[in-house]
Amino acid sequence: MLTDPPDVDEIEVSVFGPSFGEGILVKLGPTQWIAVDSCNNAVTARSKPLEYLQQIKVNVEKDLVAVVATHWHRDHIGGISDLVSAAKAADFFCPLSFKTKEFMTFAELFGPGKGNPILQRSSEYLRTLQILRNRNKCPLFVGPDRLLVNISGATAHSLSPNDALITQFLAGISGDLCRIKQDDAAVNVDRGDPNHTAIAILVGFEDCQILLGADLEEQHSFGWSTIMATSKVTRSGIQLFKIPHHGSSNAHHQPLWDHDIPKDCLVVLTPFSSGTNPPPTRVDVDRILAHSTHAYSAARARSTSAPKLGGGVEKHLEAEGIKNRAQREPKMGHVRFRRKRASGSTWSVERFDNAVLLKDIHT
Ligand SMILES: [Zn+2]
To answer: How many angstroms does the Cα of residue 312 sit away from the middle of ligand 1?
Structure first.
């Protein structure tokens, strides 16, 4: 049953996907969890990973020990401020890269300035930073090969973003800032695509590892080939892989699959549910299935109609910029992987709601 909690000696990875977004939970210790991104349950307008933790009676306040925003794209941060708000003991990790308004918001909240008119008035980003500031905490910025969490020998390392790319971003922003006037909202300090500085995470246990690919794409100066060429964190024994960027070809790096992802590795993705021909396309699915015998998707790609939302939920979604999404996006699903931590244990896989085998994603 969905509400059955894992045993204390079990590892769990839960992947939640559309209606719109991606959220992942990993149980690292006897009771401790980390959250990697968040997506809203379109029906309740609440963080789906948070709802699930509460359903299985996790003490979120104490035992959700880290929340990671892999990047600030909307499909990865739905309800993340709810998660951070509930996780009072958690560290919060994110990449040191911003879009214009995010940068100004950050400067406003954590700097000595007099207030900036470009401040984002309402966003997951602003709410998250406000919660941290009220706790006298700050975001923890990460990069390659950084240890984020270590609980009884279970570790989570970030493998990206690449320091050279962050350096480039900071150098660019400092040049742009010289031109910014207090009332000038038009100056553009956007530097590249947030996917390029997304945080890929390697979770390690005694005899198995889990690779969470975020939306990190493959580019020579910052992507998967750079991780393979420079990372000193051992990637052997990967048994579960969250495929990057919704299975898109721009995040595919064949040497990673050839060297690090065994044929019998469990692989899972969340489909993107916006735009024309969103990933994974049929070509993407065929490419993944040519390599993987155990492939899952947190949701079908096809949209399904949903009933009109009542109780002010639509208004709330509209305020979040996600109005009517439940009407035209695939319903949410959940793939749950569990195994005993003891060496040689095997995984059980459960699919809930709209989750499917990857081969059936377009049915
Ligand atoms: Zn995404």
So the answer is: 27
pLDDT score of 316 = 66
Stretch (H or E) spanning 24: strand 23-27
Tell me which residue of 92, 34, 28, 24 sits closest to 65, measured CA to CA: 34
Q: Which residues surround ligand 1, an ion (CB under 5 A)?
A: 75, 215
Q: Determine how many CB atoms are found less than 10 A away from the CB of residue 101.
A: 19
Handedness of CA 155, 243, 59, 342 (dihedral sign): negative
What domains, with CATH codes, occur in the chain? 10-360 (3.60.15.10)
Helix extents (H) in 163-296: 163-177, 224-230, 254-260, 282-291
* Amino acid sitting at position 316: H
Selected residue with higher pLDDT from 164 and 336: 336
Distance between Cα 2 and ligand 1 center (Å): 25
> Which burial class, exposed, middle or buried, applies to 283 when counting CB atoms under 10 A from its CB (0-12, 13-18, 19+)?
exposed
Q: Give 19 Cα–ligand 1 centroid separation in angstroms.
A: 12
**Nearest CA-CA partner of 297 in 357, 241, 344:** 357
Residue with tokens 């051992």: 234
Least confident of 155-164, 186-195, 249-258: 186-195
Q: Is the pLDDT of residue 50 over 60?
A: yes
Q: Which residues pair with 36 in a beta bridge?
A: 24, 68
pLDDT for res 307? 52
Contacts 24+ apart (CB under 8 A), 228-236: 228/253, 228/255, 228/256, 228/259, 228/260, 230/144, 231/144, 231/145, 231/159, 232/145, 233/145, 233/157, 233/159, 233/202, 235/202, 235/209, 235/211, 235/260, 236/209, 236/260
Tokens of 98: 């911003």
Q: Is the pLDDT of residue 116 over 60?
A: no
How high does pLDDT run on average in the chain? 87
What pLDDT is attached to residue 165? 80
